[in-house]
Amino acid sequence: MKCPRCQAEDPPGTKFCRQGAAPPRVSVCPSSRANNFAQNKFCGQCAAPLDKRAQRASAAVQVYGLTDFHAKNAIELGRLKTEFSGKVEVHRLPFPVLRELRKMAAEVVREESEKTPMARKVHASFTKFQALVGPWDHVAEGPPTISSRRGEVR
Fold first, then answer.
1. Of 8-17, 84-93, 106-115, which gets the smallest average pLDDT?
2. Is residue 143 one of the residues assigned to a domain?
3. Among candidate residues 53, 54, 31, 56, the one with its CA nearest the CA of residue 44
4. Which of 18, 41, 45, 85 has a 20 to 30 A CA-CA distance from 134?
5. pTM of whole model > 0.70?
6. Which structural domain range is residue 19 located in?
Protein backbone atom coordinates (compact mmCIF):
# COMPACT_ATOMS: atom_id res chain seq x y z
CA MET A 1 0.00 0.00 0.00
CA LYS A 2 1.21 3.54 -0.78
CA CYS A 3 1.62 6.17 1.90
CA PRO A 4 -0.72 9.10 1.14
CA ARG A 5 2.00 11.62 2.05
CA CYS A 6 5.27 10.35 0.57
CA GLN A 7 3.96 7.61 -1.77
CA ALA A 8 6.37 5.02 -0.27
CA GLU A 9 5.23 1.39 -0.51
CA ASP A 10 4.33 -0.17 2.83
CA PRO A 11 3.24 -3.77 3.46
CA PRO A 12 -0.43 -4.46 4.26
CA GLY A 13 -1.32 -4.09 7.92
CA THR A 14 1.33 -1.44 8.57
CA LYS A 15 -0.01 1.17 10.98
CA PHE A 16 2.47 3.91 10.05
CA CYS A 17 4.56 4.70 6.98
CA ARG A 18 8.06 3.26 7.35
CA GLN A 19 9.58 6.24 5.52
CA GLY A 20 7.76 9.24 6.97
CA ALA A 21 5.88 7.84 10.01
CA ALA A 22 2.56 9.15 8.65
CA PRO A 23 -0.56 7.28 9.75
CA PRO A 24 -2.73 6.09 6.86
CA ARG A 25 -5.89 8.03 6.07
CA VAL A 26 -8.71 5.86 7.28
CA SER A 27 -12.40 5.64 6.47
CA VAL A 28 -14.74 3.82 8.86
CA CYS A 29 -17.34 1.56 7.24
CA PRO A 30 -20.86 2.58 8.31
CA SER A 31 -21.98 -1.07 8.27
CA SER A 32 -19.18 -3.08 9.92
CA ARG A 33 -17.36 -0.15 11.62
CA ALA A 34 -14.13 -1.59 10.16
CA ASN A 35 -11.27 0.74 9.28
CA ASN A 36 -10.57 1.05 5.55
CA PHE A 37 -8.05 3.04 3.60
CA ALA A 38 -9.54 6.34 2.45
CA GLN A 39 -9.14 5.49 -1.23
CA ASN A 40 -11.17 2.24 -0.90
CA LYS A 41 -14.54 2.24 -2.64
CA PHE A 42 -15.81 -0.81 -0.74
CA CYS A 43 -15.25 -2.09 2.79
CA GLY A 44 -12.55 -4.74 3.08
CA GLN A 45 -14.58 -6.57 5.75
CA CYS A 46 -18.18 -6.61 4.47
CA ALA A 47 -17.95 -5.19 0.90
CA ALA A 48 -20.40 -2.38 1.75
CA PRO A 49 -19.97 0.68 -0.47
CA LEU A 50 -18.06 3.47 1.25
CA ASP A 51 -19.79 6.32 -0.60
CA LYS A 52 -21.63 7.31 2.59
CA ARG A 53 -18.99 10.01 2.94
CA ALA A 54 -20.58 11.84 0.02
CA GLN A 55 -23.98 11.64 1.68
CA ARG A 56 -22.63 12.96 4.99
CA ALA A 57 -20.73 15.71 3.19
CA SER A 58 -23.87 16.67 1.28
CA ALA A 59 -25.85 16.85 4.53
CA ALA A 60 -23.18 19.01 6.20
CA VAL A 61 -22.98 21.39 3.24
CA GLN A 62 -26.78 21.68 3.21
CA VAL A 63 -26.88 22.56 6.92
CA TYR A 64 -24.01 25.06 6.81
CA GLY A 65 -25.09 26.55 3.49
CA LEU A 66 -28.70 26.97 4.55
CA THR A 67 -27.69 28.54 7.87
CA ASP A 68 -25.38 30.99 6.12
CA PHE A 69 -28.05 31.74 3.51
CA HIS A 70 -30.67 32.55 6.17
CA ALA A 71 -28.25 34.66 8.21
CA LYS A 72 -27.20 36.76 5.20
CA ASN A 73 -30.81 37.19 4.08
CA ALA A 74 -31.84 38.34 7.57
CA ILE A 75 -29.02 40.90 7.62
CA GLU A 76 -29.91 42.24 4.18
CA LEU A 77 -33.63 42.40 5.01
CA GLY A 78 -32.79 44.47 8.09
CA ARG A 79 -30.64 46.73 5.94
CA LEU A 80 -33.46 47.16 3.41
CA LYS A 81 -35.89 48.10 6.16
CA THR A 82 -33.56 50.65 7.77
CA GLU A 83 -31.82 52.23 4.75
CA PHE A 84 -34.88 52.34 2.53
CA SER A 85 -37.60 52.83 5.11
CA GLY A 86 -40.73 54.17 3.43
CA LYS A 87 -39.26 53.61 -0.06
CA VAL A 88 -39.39 49.82 -0.28
CA GLU A 89 -42.08 47.36 0.69
CA VAL A 90 -41.37 43.65 1.01
CA HIS A 91 -44.21 41.37 -0.10
CA ARG A 92 -44.52 37.60 -0.17
CA LEU A 93 -44.84 35.96 -3.56
CA PRO A 94 -48.22 34.27 -4.03
CA PHE A 95 -48.20 30.52 -3.39
CA PRO A 96 -49.01 29.57 -7.03
CA VAL A 97 -46.04 31.63 -8.24
CA LEU A 98 -43.74 29.95 -5.71
CA ARG A 99 -45.02 26.51 -6.74
CA GLU A 100 -44.25 27.22 -10.41
CA LEU A 101 -40.80 28.62 -9.57
CA ARG A 102 -39.99 25.48 -7.58
CA LYS A 103 -41.07 23.28 -10.50
CA MET A 104 -38.89 25.25 -12.92
CA ALA A 105 -35.91 25.15 -10.55
CA ALA A 106 -36.28 21.38 -10.07
CA GLU A 107 -36.38 20.88 -13.85
CA VAL A 108 -33.22 22.96 -14.38
CA VAL A 109 -31.39 21.08 -11.61
CA ARG A 110 -32.48 17.73 -13.09
CA GLU A 111 -31.29 18.74 -16.58
CA GLU A 112 -27.93 19.95 -15.25
CA SER A 113 -27.48 16.78 -13.19
CA GLU A 114 -27.66 14.64 -16.32
CA LYS A 115 -24.59 16.24 -17.91
CA THR A 116 -21.86 14.27 -16.10
CA PRO A 117 -21.63 11.02 -14.11
CA MET A 118 -20.46 12.91 -11.01
CA ALA A 119 -23.37 15.36 -11.30
CA ARG A 120 -25.78 12.40 -11.52
CA LYS A 121 -24.24 10.85 -8.40
CA VAL A 122 -24.36 14.11 -6.45
CA HIS A 123 -27.94 14.76 -7.56
CA ALA A 124 -29.03 11.24 -6.54
CA SER A 125 -27.40 11.65 -3.12
CA PHE A 126 -28.91 15.10 -2.61
CA THR A 127 -32.36 13.89 -3.72
CA LYS A 128 -32.15 11.11 -1.14
CA PHE A 129 -31.14 13.67 1.50
CA GLN A 130 -34.01 15.99 0.52
CA ALA A 131 -36.48 13.12 0.86
CA LEU A 132 -35.19 12.64 4.40
CA VAL A 133 -35.43 16.29 5.49
CA GLY A 134 -38.35 17.32 3.26
CA PRO A 135 -41.11 16.57 5.77
CA TRP A 136 -39.40 18.78 8.35
CA ASP A 137 -39.01 21.59 5.81
CA HIS A 138 -42.78 21.62 5.30
CA VAL A 139 -43.28 22.01 9.05
CA ALA A 140 -40.45 24.51 9.57
CA GLU A 141 -41.18 26.71 6.56
CA GLY A 142 -44.97 26.52 6.63
CA PRO A 143 -47.35 28.73 8.58
CA PRO A 144 -46.97 28.38 12.36
CA THR A 145 -49.57 25.94 13.60
CA ILE A 146 -49.65 24.27 17.00
CA SER A 147 -52.29 21.71 17.80
CA SER A 148 -53.26 20.74 21.31
CA ARG A 149 -56.10 18.88 22.94
CA ARG A 150 -57.75 22.18 23.79
CA GLY A 151 -57.80 23.39 20.22
CA GLU A 152 -55.62 24.76 17.51
CA VAL A 153 -53.45 27.84 17.90
CA ARG A 154 -52.39 29.86 14.86
1. 8-17
2. no
3. 31
4. 41
5. no
6. 1-50
